[in-house]
What we know:
- This protein is an alpha/beta fold.
- 40% of the residues lie in helices and 19% in strands.
- The chain has a single domain, classed as 2-enoyl-CoA Hydratase, Chain A, domain 1, CATH 3.90.226.10.
- The chain has helices spanning 54-86, 118-133, 151-168, 183-188, 215-221, 246-271, 278-284, 292-297, 307-318, 334-342, 350-357; strands at residues 10-11, 17-18, 88-90, 93-99, 106-113, 137-146, 148-150, 172-181, 193-196, 201-203, 208-210, 289-291, 303-304, 324-329, 360-364.
- It is flat.
Amino acid sequence: MDYDRQDVPSIGQAGQYSPQGPGAPPPPYSPPPAMPAGYGPQYAMAEPPRRRSGWRIIWGIFTALSVAANIALLLMVIGVFAFFAAGDYRGTFTEKVVESGPRTDKIAVIAIEGIIDTDQAQRVYEELKVAREDKAVKGLIVRINSPGGSISGSDRIYNEISKFRKEQGKPVVAFMQGMAASGGYYSSVACEKIVAEPTVITGSIGVIMGHFVFGELLEKKLGVQPVILKSGQKKDWPSSFTPPTDEQLQYLQERIITPAFERFLDVVTVGRRDVLTAEQIRPLADGGIYTAPQAKDNKLIDQIGYLDEAIALVKTMAGLTKAEVVEYREPFSLIGLLNAKTNVGIKLDRSTLLELCMPQAMYLWSGY
């Protein structure tokens, strides 16, 4: 086989590689061609760059929130245990220690706060039941800060306190804190002694009743005309659709106001019988309020002072030198907390509307 010498490389004089024979200069250097994109030295496909997924971010946020929620739950559980560790749990209440002393001799504090209604009366009943079952309780303080409220609620509280005194034979002292007017005073006279803060407002011995009349608004403004069917003339007295007549007002005075007022006078007469007569009480029962000094001068209360004075008085009456003073509190409850949040606001259902329109006689100071 013949070969073309021009195609065969040769070695030059200097030992250089030359395709054109001896003495020919070497060809210029040319870099190797670039590799295609995505190929490495082994001609393997390179892995494409990773992109961050939206689901990964969402999952991270969810995980962080879950951890935070668990930490909050743990702190809440610790708080609940700390709450119960701070006071003795009895039935549906815990005991908050107001003043340290021997556990064998206790003075229990029961609170009446805000408007007196059925729920308030039920709470007092339950707290008195706890105090009755605790044999270490040697005396009782009823702490009152209320402008009064319903007649039935006030009377029920008065009855429960009176029954406790009669059954237990233990000293019971009322401590007026801020306000103890009308139904608040009604409740306090069930106690053996009454101590009031210097700035307290009390008295307001009397009955109040009122209601709204919507007749003109409904007919002239809204074009609504109420239709009332009744079995007797006095069935709808007083009515929310027509202004009351003099006959209706006299009827309400005789059937509701006067009996409730006389009941109030009887209760005060019994409660203050050691210092006041019925004849002395009646002039004081004009519905007016009294400051603590005025109430003391008129013998509606026994002493002006603070909680420490009330505690000292109970100790003296019970023959104690030292005692542990405890106040009953409702225990913390997650269900109660949720209910408190969900019950915020005014619920205008049929019962609420009827309650707003219905005339109510109350032992309540209207200046509250």
